[in-house]
From TrEMBL:
GO terms, molecular function: deaminase activity
A single GO cellular-component term on record: cytosol
InterPro entries, alphabetized: RutC-like_sf (IPR035959), YjgF/YER057c/UK114 (IPR006175)
Region described as Disordered: 1-26
Official protein name in the record: RidA family protein
Length: 131
């Protein structure tokens, strides 16, 4: 059954493996993501180091929002899931690169969780398109 007005969004080269879920969904002017891993979109694999995972996670978040018809300026909330609290500092460089204006940053919250399969960072995003 197709739900009118809602559509799945995928990030080319980044999958959830065999799990039949999209990377995100758009309904009206809202975009909601599933978990966005720091996978390299060229290989669909996780780098071993946390900094590379963070870089790719933010890149994949941008790609998702753009694939849904938005821009990073439409992002209103980012939830960051980290394997370990000591990884918090790796989030700031890609964050500041994506959101350099302190007057125009989305809300952000971090949680420490037991991420699977070598994953050290995962993002979730909510975007509201247009004003």
């Amino acid at each position: 059954m197709k739900y009118e007005g809602k559509r799945s969004i995928e990030v080319p080269g980044v999958t959830h493996g065999q799990t039949p879920i999209p990377m995100g969904a758009r309904k009206g002017n809202f975009i909601f993501s599933s978990g966005i891993a720091g996978k390299d979109p060229q290989t669909d694999t996780l780098p071993e180091d946390a900094q590379s995972q963070a870089k790719f996670a933010f890149q994949n978040m941008r790609t998702l929002v753009e694939a849904g018809g938005g821009t990073v300026n439409d992002i209103v909330r980012v939830t960051v899931f980290l394997k370990d609290g000591s990884l918090r500092p790796i989030v700031n460089p890609p964050w500041l690169e994506m959101f350099p204006d302190p007057e125009d940053r989305p809300a952000r919250h971090a949680q420490i969780v037991d991420l699977p399969g070598g994953m050290q960072i995962q993002l979730e995003v909510i975007a509201v398109l247009g004003d």
